[in-house]
Amino acid sequence: MTSIHDEIKTLSEQLKQQRDEIRVKLELAKLDARDEWEELEEHWEHFSSKMAHLGKEAGKEVEDAGKEISEAAKELGQKIKTRYENLKDKL
């Protein structure tokens, strides 16, 4: 027959193990989030560049190219937005 002391000791050991496992998972999640953030920063730079180019092209006679750039920038912006939201949910 186990005593209350033994039950509490077992519970304490289980809690410590769970705590350690969670700590490791949190550290790994931080690394994953950091990696994803760095990748998103590259996408942001690309998006910003497209937006700057679009602004320059607005006054020129390259309407078709402007529309194509606009659509690509919009699509890229939506992808970045979705990934930012996913990353925020992970944190």
From TrEMBL:
- Which positions are tagged coiled coil? 1-32
Keyword annotations for this protein, in alphabetical order, are: Coiled coil
Cross-referenced SUPFAM superfamilies: Apolipoprotein (SSF47162)
Q: What is this protein called?
A: Uncharacterized protein
